[in-house]
Specification:
The complex is a heterotrimer of chains A (305), B (290) and C (505). Chain A has 305 residues and is mostly helical. Chain A has 14 helices and no strands. Helix content of chain B is 68%, strand content 0%. Chain C is an alpha+beta fold. In chain C, α11 links the parallel β14 and β15. In chain C, α8 packs antiparallel against α10. The radius of gyration of chain C is 25 Å and the shape is globular. Classes of the chains: A mainly alpha (305), B mainly alpha (290), C alpha+beta (505). At the A-C interface, α3, α5, α7 and α12 of A face α1, α6, α12 and α13 of C.
Chain lengths: 305, 290, 505
């Protein structure tokens, strides 16, 4: 097991390193950002001075080495826009994204798993059909449209909920529902198909034949065995949620990492973009690793590959 | 965009492969009808409407649905119904082109990776991992920051993000197939690689690739809409459902039709394509029961 | 299973609790919805509209533009600056002004701030601007003398919106702390800055001018315009800038807010780039493009009248504007004639027009309209829409097409516009000729107000003939404002909240 985890950790490190290198190189294709941050009446000579001071006139390799050395220490330089350490600026926004994603994920699971289980148990009933309809719809509706419609109806028209921002628990409702919709739909479908598959298996029929009460049968045996793919998908969806909350954060002006990184990209604030690349690579690798470990733990057959 | 988690559906329990022909169920039928409508709209747009998609009439801005303008007009007086029809062209183009190219790339690379194994496999899969560690939207915006915005760059972005899903799937299938007896037998008998690939592997790969493609089409269409919605994709006056939503959101409070109808078009199309994909999956590969 | 549920529930609650902001104010704050947060709260460090708008309320300023037509008025200064000779400026400060922490505001603050921004290690964007300053001396506790290396009449304008730091405070806590907890002398004190969420300010009861009527002010950061509009219509925001002309009706009908507009000092134009050889090198072709576009019709139809036509590069409220110029009339026949005179066939001309998208009101729509007017006389114009960063990048690196759309402002005097946009080596310029450059360079150091004015007027006539742009309009700044707030827009786009009040019901 230890060997397994160690190997995966090394692989993760390689991924993070590659991701950083790629993004670092990309910024040279995007043109000089320094001018964008200076006032419009700066002379070309003064612009050169700024570039020199920030080290942008050094050759690619020198800049790259400087960046990597700094990155290992946790120093990604200062944001070009705000002149504060880029890493700090991004990390400060993390709790907001985490809380929104967390709430969305909980909401999604809390609705999806029961729906999926019941749908499978009562296959082809009206509940099942409704459930399938809802999940198919949930996967087809784009998040940004859903968000817009929700704001219009609940915030502007009915005025039950705030239009944007963060403040009280009310502010959580619309953005987390928007985020959760797609994920819930996907989980519900997966749960249902997993449960159906498992319920058809022999040992379930045996348990039923033995006279064990149906709910017990369902939850204990079936769900445990169906949990494998769900766990894997959970880890992956969480990663996608965190990164993919970008649009939701922008529409709802939620002060999270996604929104901040988009603004940084628009503003060509590369030190911040690089921090973003680093953190998402770390996060994704970490979640992947967690998923693999969980999978291996739940399914010992995998460990020995 | 959590929408682009792609078909990262974990491997499901194996059962014997049985080919059955399912009758067309309601979902599949509905899906096919929708897809057909979209295709017709895209192809026959100029014939279905007398207005041009970029024809602005500054005296008739923000009109609600009426007899002259079935779905109303936008802030520049352009007919919404017409623009939705032309928007179907963009969506269709995106769907077909990106799926085609990314699928081809993914198929080839996945095949190579799975079949050859070893260093090639490790390298390619690391590349896939690096790629997947970027949230889709950020990748799209990065491409746009470097290359600029517009239809071609959107297609490029979608291809860059899309191939990885195919590659992973194909690799997985190839690995599973490689272990099968008759493949091993063929190798033992000294059959050349290309023959094995062409005659034994590829035929078994079409099915999963087609199924994946049908799901990817919907995702790509929605992805393009998302990017255009943020202002980075197809630019007005070219009509795309995404940029129509982008323009419409400012006027949502008294011109609800500007966001509702393109949104519905998007939802129905995604729905239809998804349903067709599901039906294909049920028909072609009953291992993956819904 | 149950354990997992409990863990999840706890995480949920913790997450939500962490997000709930502490409530405090009994009175409802005045909320201004902006698209971005400040880049810094340190005075005189960064040139950026969003940053300055917010800082202004914390720091107050030496001078400001006010009135119709706008003229410079003193705020922290006691009177307009005096210039006993071409190289000397005497600034007298208002007495009995205190910083938020009680420190008196004296001449020392002005000397300190100028020297601070000139010091390279503080990395101030203002440093290049003040590079002509040779020395700053304190003559008495309320008087400062600035000596310049060469005549620099533009200093008069650089002192407008000049904010003062508190020297004691900055010396004590350092730059970083001072920018996180700013201490100024303005009508509002800093309370809190929640990154990407809001900047909270409260009234300064010992402001030198009477204390502000509204006790609490919040700048909220909402990047998406339609979300800001939604906030306005739902009553969550009280002031929102840049309502699109077509959305004006919906705001006015909402019952909640109304649109208050002002003719801005920000202008829009289409630059005709003459850096590369081609038809645009010929002045006749450039003039023809001006004749070929029906600007008045664009303003009437696209902007519903909410833009003001200008004949040249300066807005009508600019101090140095030449009032005698009349805009090019719409005359497509003359346009064709001029092009032919220059030796070109209009139907064989092809240009690319670079345009931003949503940066200025209806910018790409206007670009499309302009392209279609040129199309009517046979010229093929392709509109290349760019995302804002790319657009600026193209202009800076001289990679645009033959034309590009841009806005400029706020500009209430000539040098900041003309010297920046019509000398070929300047960063955002699209045009330059040696004759023009010579005239501009001669005008810059003229100190005598009348001679200076005459110079700028003459240059504007030159520009009119040279036609380096398709001259368009000055924007109308349309603000969506809660009906219950008395506050009027400012021509230089400032949002100074000292005079804002809630109307009495």
């Amino acid at each position: 097991m230890v060997q397994f985890v160690t190997r995966r950790l090394l692989e993760a490190a390689v991924v993070v390193f590659l991701a950083l290198t790629v993004v670092f190189s990309l910024q040279f294709l995007a043109g000089d950002p320094v001018k964008l941050f200076l006032p419009t009446d700066t002379t070309p000579k003064q612009i050169e001075e700024f570039r020199d001071r920030l080290g942008f006139n050094d050759p690619w390799l020198v800049q790259y080495m400087r960046f990597m050395r700094g990155a290992l220490r946790g120093d990604f330089g200062d944001s070009l826009r705000q002149n504060e350490p880029a890493l700090e600026l991004v990390l400060r926004r993390f709790p907001a994204t985490l809380s929104l994603s967390g709430v969305a994920m909980v909401l999604a699971l809390a609705t999806a798993i029961p729906v999926g289980v019941i749908s499978a148990a009562r296959r082809n009933s009206w509940f099942d059909h409704l459930g399938i309809g809802a999940t198919v719809l949930g996967q087809a509706i784009p998040g940004f449209w859903l968000g817009l419609m929700l704001i219009y109806v609940f915030a502007v028209w009915l005025r039950w909920l705030p239009t944007s921002g963060r403040g009280t628990w009310l502010h959580f409702v619309l953005p987390s529902v928007t985020l959760a919709a797609f994920v819930a739909a996907r989980f519900a479908r997966l749960t249902r198909s997993m449960m159906l598959d498992v319920l058809g298996q022999d040992y379930i029929r045996t348990a039923r034949a033995k006279g064990l009460a149906p709910p017990r049968v369902l939850y204990k045996h079936a769900l445990k065995n169906a949990s494998l793919p769900i766990v894997t998908l959970l880890a992956l969806q969480l990663g996608q949620l965190l990164g993919g909350a970008v649009i939701t954060e922008t529409i709802f002006a939620w002060p999270g990492v996604g929104r901040f990184l988009v603004q940084a990209l628009l503003n060509r604030d590369f030190p911040v973009v690089l921090v973003g690349a680093f953190l998402t690579a770390v996060l994704y690798s970490g979640l992947n690793l967690a998923a693999d470990v969980a999978y291996a733990w739940l399914n010992p057959r995998i460990r020995y590959e | 965009m959590s929408e682009i988690a792609g078909a990262l559906v974990p491997v499901l329990p194996q059962s014997r492969r049985v080919r059955r022909r399912l009758p067309l169920n309601r979902g599949g039928a509905f899906g096919l009808v929708v897809v057909a409508l979209v295709v017709i709209a895209a192809i026959a747009a100029p014939m279905l409407s007398s207005y041009g998609p970029a024809e602005s009439a500054l005296t008739k801005t923000l009109r609600p649905p009426s007899r002259e303008h079935w779905l109303g007009t936008d802030q520049l007086g352009r007919d919404l119904f017409t623009r939705i029809l032309y928007g179907a062209r963009v969506s269709l183009a995106i769907g077909l082109v990106t799926v085609g190219i990314s699928g081809a790339i993914g198929l080839v690379l996945g095949l190579i990776s799975g079949y050859l194994g070893g260093v090639t496999d490790v390298l390619l899969m690391r590349l896939v991992d690096v790629q997947l560690s970027f949230p889709f939207i950020l990748l799209a915006l990065t491409v746009n920051a470097i290359l600029g915005i517009g239809l071609q760059n959107i297609i490029l972005t979608l291809i860059i993000t899309g191939w990885v899903v195919y590659a992973r799937l194909v690799r997985g299938e190839v690995l599973a197939l490689k272990a099968l007896d008759y493949i091993e037998a063929a190798r033992a008998l000294g059959a050349p690689r290309t023959r094995i690939i062409a005659r034994h592997l590829l035929p078994n790969l079409w099915t999963p690739v087609i199924i994946l493609s049908s799901l990817q089409v919907a995702q790509f269409i929605v992805a393009e809409a998302a990017i255009s919605f943020l202002g980075f994709g197809v630019q007005p006056p070219t009509a795309s459902w995404g940029n129509m939503l982008n323009e419409g959101k400012t006027y949502i409070y008294n011109a609800w039709w500007m966001t509702t109808f393109p949104g519905l078009a998007l939802v129905l199309t995604a729905l239809g394509v998804n349903l067709v994909g599901d039906w294909l999956r049920d028909t072609l590969d009953p291992r993956l029961t819904t | 299973m149950r354990k997992i549920a409990i863990v999840l529930a706890v995480t949920l609650l913790v997450g939500i609790a962490g997000a709930t902001a502490p409530t405090g104010a009994q009175e409802r704050p005045l909320v201004i919805a902006l698209g971005a947060e400040p880049r810094s709260l340190m005075a005189m460090r960064i040139v950026d509209w969003t940053t300055n708008v917010q800082q202004m309320n914390i720091y107050d300023r030496l001078y400001y533009w006010d009135g119709d037509p706008p003229r410079i008025k003193p705020s922290l200064a006691a009177e307009l600056p005096q210039t006993p000779d071409d190289l000397t400026w005497i600034i007298k400060l208002r007495p009995n002004v205190r910083f938020h922490n009680g420190d008196p505001l004296t001449a020392d603050a002005l000397k300190w701030t100028i020297e601070w921004l000139l010091d390279a290690k503080n990395e101030s964007h203002y440093r290049p601007r003040f590079s002509f300053v040779e020395s700053v001396d304190v003559l008495d506790p309320l008087t400062v003398r600035i000596r310049t290396k060469e005549p620099a009449p533009v200093l008069r304008y650089y002192l407008v919106d000049f904010t003062l730091q508190n020297p004691n405070y900055v010396r004590q806590v350092g730059n970083d702390a001072a920018s996180r907890q700013p201490i100024g002398a303005g009508p509002y004190k800093f309370v809190r800055w929640d990154r990407d969420e809001r900047l909270v300010l409260e009234a300064n009861p010992s402001y030198w001018n009477k204390p502000p009527a509204i006790k609490r002010v919040e700048f909220r950061f909402i990047p998406d315009f339609s979300a800001r509009l939604a906030a306005l219509l739902a009553g969550e925001a009280d002031i929102v800038k840049d309502v699109p002309p077509v959305a004006v009706d919906q705001v006015n009908r909402s019952g909640q807010a109304e649109v208050r507009g002002i003719s801005s000092s920000r202008i829009n134009y289409v630059a005709l780039v003459n850096f590369k050889s081609g038809p645009l090198q010929d002045r006749r072709v450039r003039q023809a493009l001006n004749y070929a576009v029906n600007v008045d019709e664009i303003i009437a139809n696209l902007y519903k009248g909410r833009a003001t036509r200008i004949p040249g590069a300066l807005s009508s409220i600019n101090e140095n504007v030449n009032p005698n110029l009349k805009p090019y009339p719409y005359d497509p026949n003359r346009a064709v004639q001029l092009i032919k005179e220059a030796g070109y066939d209009p139907t064989k001309l092809e240009f690319t027009l670079d345009s931003p998208s949503g940066r200025y009101p209806l910018d790409k729509e206007a670009a499309e309209a302009i392209a279609s007017y040129l199309g009517k006389i046979g010229i093929k114009v392709r509109v290349q829409v760019n995302e804002w960063g790319t657009h600026l990048d193209r202009i800076i690196n001289r990679r645009t097409g033959e034309m590009f759309y841009l806005g400029w402002g706020p500009a209430l005097e000539a040098q900041g516009t003309i010297a920046e946009l019509f000398r070929a080596e300047r960063t955002y310029s699209g045009f330059g000729t040696p004759a023009l450059a010579q005239e501009i360079n001669k005008a810059i150091p003229i100190v005598d107000a009348r001679k200076r004015q005459a110079s700028w007027h003459r240059i504007q006539v030159m520009l009119y003939t040279e036609a380096p742009w398709i001259f368009l309009w000055q924007q109308h700044d349309l603000y969506g404002v809660n009906k219950r707030v008395t506050w009027q827009p400012h021509p230089a786009e400032k949002i100074f909240l000292h005079d804002a009040t809630w109307t009495k019901r």
